[in-house]
Fold this sequence. Notes:
Elements: H1 2-23, H2 33-52, H3 58-86, H4 90-98, H5 102-140
Helix pairs in contact: 1-2, 1-3, 2-5, 3-5
Amino acid sequence: MKRYFLIFSAVYLVSTVILFALSLFVNIPSAGSIPILIAAGFYTSYYFVKNENRVPTPVEKRQLVFGSFICTLLVSGILVTIFLLAANMTELLFEGLKSISIGVILFVFAIASLIQILVLYMSYGWYAQKCLDSQHNRYIR
């Protein structure tokens, strides 16, 4: 699984950096990160099916989903930390967080996490099956 987490993380990292660079020139809404998650999940799912010639088993699917979710947290955390340190905005962040209750922060994190997990389940489930069907159709022709 480590190989797939590395692939997912690389695609997620590169896509996030590209989105950040684009956001300097174009106003991109905060929901712009969802296509990044879809791209990373779909590519990793495609790579899995291509290498294994099958869809992930339920246990593998769970491992891929939650491992990829952890990768998004790590990559995002590292990128945010680098940005805050480079822009010297850590104090501003902490002041802003003090004004928001922990309950609101946890609620927003839970909703965002649920959306990410659902997107990843779709990637390693529905999309993996589409990739396998496409792969079989190529061999039939």
